[in-house]
Amino acid sequence: MTTTHEWPHLFDAGAPGTPVLLLLHGTGGSEHDLLPLVGRLAPGAGYLAPRGPVQEHGMNRWFRRFGEGVFDVDDVVRRAGELAGFVDWARGHYGIADRPLVAVGFSNGANIALAAALLHPGAVANAVAFSGMYPLEGRTIEADLSGTAVALFNGRSDAMAPIDSVVRVGSILESRGAEVTRNVREGGHGIHPGEIDGAAAWIASTRKVRND
Fold first, then answer.
1. Which residue, among 166, 156, 158, 163, has the nearest Cα to 135 in the 3D structure?
2. What positions does the domain Phospholipase/carboxylesterase/thioesterase occupy (predicted)?
């Protein structure tokens, strides 16, 4: 297990008073992948971009899986805890404890963002999930998520993140008190330009974007 201070990552403080975006790449990506989105999602924002700690055939991931869409849920739980610990460390190390933090994840990164929001709302209370799905099948969610806000962006015909799983994660979040914004477009896996605009508007407008 990589300790938090050894976890490869990029950081930029951004402008005072702006949120810090926790950028979580997809399978096979790196800490550099989502950097081009920062200015479009929240102009002037800071960013914290770690690298997924799991290797799958040479590809970076956030947690293990047994097959396409079949997650090692025990590992999801473990890695979500590690991510929450990394966020807590970074808040102190970089002096951003008073800044709102918004997780922004794509695909596998969206799934770990959702897992962290479900299990560790004190660390990840605000999340934008592009092409994510429910990552904790078979687990009971007991956390109080009344201070959590999540925006889901999905393609209706996404075989990698089936719409029924998307509906499920939204329903579970709401059942625990989270505020959920759902955005479903035609098409499959990926980040559509219109979704970036929608996520930017959500980040700018939601009153839930704050430091918990």
1. 166
2. 15-203
Tell the CATH topology of 4-205: Rossmann fold (3.40.50)
Residues 6+ positions from 39 with CB-CB distance below 8 Å:
none
Contact between 190 and 135 (Cβ < 8 Å): no
Active site residue 165: no
Instruction: Give pLDDT tens digits for 179-190.
Output: 999 999 999 999
Average pLDDT value over all residues in the chain: 93
Q: Which of 25, 131, 158, 165 is catalytic?
A: 158
How are beta strands 9-12 and 46-50 bridged, if at all?
Answer: antiparallel
Whether residue 25 lies in the annotated active site = no
Q: For 112-141, what is the mean pLDDT?
A: 97
Alpha-carbon span 70 to 125, nearest angstrom = 25
Instruction: State residue 113 phi and psi, 5-degree precision.
Output: -65, -45
pLDDT band at 205; cut points 50, 70, 90: confident
Structure tokens at 9: 């990552």
Nearest to 79 by CA among 64, 57, 58, 67: 64
User: Is residue 158 among the annotated active site residues?
Assistant: yes
